[in-house]
Specification:
- With about 475 residues, this protein is α+β, with helices and mostly antiparallel strands.
- The protein folds into four domains: about 90 residues, 3-Layer(aba) Sandwich (Rossmann fold), CATH 3.40.50.140; about 150 residues, Topoisomerase I, domain 2, CATH 1.10.460.10; about 90 residues, Sandwich (EV matrix protein fold); about 120 residues, Orthogonal Bundle (Topoisomerase I, domain 4), CATH 1.10.290.
- It is about 45% helix and about 20% strand.
- It contains 16 helices and 14 strands.
- The strands form five sheets. It has a four-stranded antiparallel β-sheet with strand order 10-9-8-11.
- It is globular, with a radius of gyration of 27 Å.
- The model has no long low-confidence stretch (mean pLDDT about 95).
């Protein structure tokens, strides 16, 4: 199987993008079409004039595939080298220039499979949907469809209600209480000090989750902000599932933390892949000052960028701190012949938790016998997923990748399969109908298990453990059953 390429065209009148070799826009008929062919010719001319092309696209499979495409365009015109850097700083780029390499064909082949599989499965299923629903703005995909299913299933549970009794004075939920008051006896069972290790630095999924939970911004916006921070040389590459910290990273932490520093690499080095971390020992206030004084260009950096940078900075610096101490208390609460045990952290001390609050600290529960108020609430069996929850599930169930977490969620919004209210995700009527149709007729193609297995095969291709042509043949056999 060999992919066939054509230049990308974009209609300036209606913004429609297409690849067919025509002079007019297939959608609106306008002749005002921008063809990328002239940009390709400009690059080829520059390569021919210099005799050397150094390609510095993003350090992931998609970036490697783009580098390979460019290398093919420059073939016979110039020597081609690949440069890889994970932070846009003079030191990192100078080091990368001393480590020029060839194209990693494992990454390229994995991306080829990913793109072809997306076209074959996604486009074929989408055509089925267009025919049934009469709507060409809808689509299906191997990862997109299971994620939609999670949101629909959680919505079903949200609609089922249950009664709970909540005691505000104690901050606990209990069962078997009917009245508005109940007599309780609280006994402290245990009190202890624990030493805990800080959380590791951010990976893509964790950053997207905290951006949603703490900053209240969606996955797609968070990734755009992170891209800007990376391109501005403020953080390392933001599409990663590695928590590894390089020596450069630990030296930054040592400079900032002083006596609170404790070096942790967190994971085995995996090529050049590293966690998401700041590139300088500057906290948010220092960065704001540097931008204000024009030490760094500030045109594209907004308050949202600074908020996301602050998360990255504090989480990373906390990961390099000494262990911190927490007070943990366990209580037995007796009432109406029943009892419930409640354990909670009542205090946390240390530089790590000052930088990044990784534990929830609650008030102590008053001891003794007392009459307390009870609130009877009707609550959902489960609450709807947030974008943060969906990203976490994609990582846990291995059906998403750092480069696709935000785009999958964005596509569900774009197709009007889901909507967001109070940061909760709900399925639309269209989303329910499309998912029902797909699971009834094509479940074997979009099941979570099948999706996971295909993605695992792509990972094997990246590591040169599988033949990409064999994987494509297997997928092609699937497509023939769909036709």
């Amino acid at each position: 199987f060999t992919p066939i390429y054509s230049t990308i065209k974009r209609c300036r009148s209606c913004n429609y993008q297409f690849t067919t070799e025509v002079d007019k826009c297939p959608r609106c008929g306008s002749s005002d079409v921008d063809d990328s062919k002239h940009r390709i010719e400009s690059l080829r001319r520059l390569a021919s004039e210099t005799g050397l092309a150094i390609i510095g696209t993003d350090p992931d499979a998609e970036g490697e595939k783009i580098a390979w495409d460019l290398a093919n365009l420059f073939s016979g015109l110039a020597e081609v080298k690949r440069i890889e850097f994970h932070e846009v700083t003079p030191k990192a780029i100078n080091r990368a220039f001393s480590e020029l390499r060839g194209i990693d064909m494992g990454l390229v082949e994995a991306q080829i499979v990913r793109r072809i599989e997306d076209r074959w499965i996604g486009f074929t299923l989408s055509q089925k949907l267009w025919k049934v629903f009469g709507n060409r703005n809808i689509s299906a995909g191997r990862v997109q469809s299971p994620v939609l299913g999670w949101i629909i299933e959680r919505d079903r549970k949200f609609r089922r209600k249950k009664k709970v009794a909540y005691i505000p004075d104690l901050g606990v939920t209990v069962e078997g209480v009917e009245g508005d008051e109940v007599e309780v006896e609280v006994e402290k069972m245990e009190e202890k000090l624990e030493t805990r290790t800080p959380l590791p630095p951010y990976t893509t999924d964790e950053l997207l989750r905290d951006a949603n939970n703490i900053l209240k911004i969606g996955s797609n916006v968070a990734m755009k902000l992170a891209q800007d921070l990376f391109e501005s040389g403020l953080i390392t590459y933001h599409r990663t599932d590695s928590t590894y910290v390089s020596k450069v990273g630990t030296s930054l932490a040592a400079e900032y933390l002083g006596e609170d520093f404790k070096e942790r690499s967190w994971a085995m080095e995996k090529g050049a892949h590293e966690c998401i971390r700041p590139t300088r020992p500057w906290d948010r206030e220092m960065l704001r000052r540097m931008l204000y004084e024009r030490v760094l260009p500030a045109e594209n950096i907004t308050s949202k960028h600074l908020a996301l940078y602050d998360l990255v900075f504090r989480r990373f610096m906390a990961s390099q701190c000494r262990e911190f101490e927490v007070e943990v208390k366990k209580y037995k609460i007796k009432y109406n012949g029943r009892s419930v045990v409640e354990e909670r952290v009542t205090a946390a001390r240390g530089r790590a938790v000052e930088l990044f609050r990784s534990v929830v600290v609650k008030d102590e529960i008053p001891e003794g016998r007392m009459l307390v108020k009870v609130k009877h609430l009707i609550v959902p069996e489960e609450y709807p997923y947030t974008q943060a929850d969906v990203v976490k599930l994609m990582r846990e169930r291995s059906i998403g990748r750092p480069s696709t977490y935000s785009t999958i969620i964005e596509k569900l919004f774009l197709r009007k399969y889901v909507y967001e209210r109070r940061r909760w995700l709900f399925p639309t009527s269209l989303g329910r109908k499309v998912y029902s149709f797909l699971t009834r007729n094509y479940n074997s193609f979009i099941s979570e298990e099948r999706t996971r297995r295909v993605l695992e095969e792509m990972d094997k291709i990246e590591n040169s453990q599988a033949d990409y042509q064999e994987v494509l043949r297997e997928i092609y056999e699937e497509i023939k059953r769909l036709a």
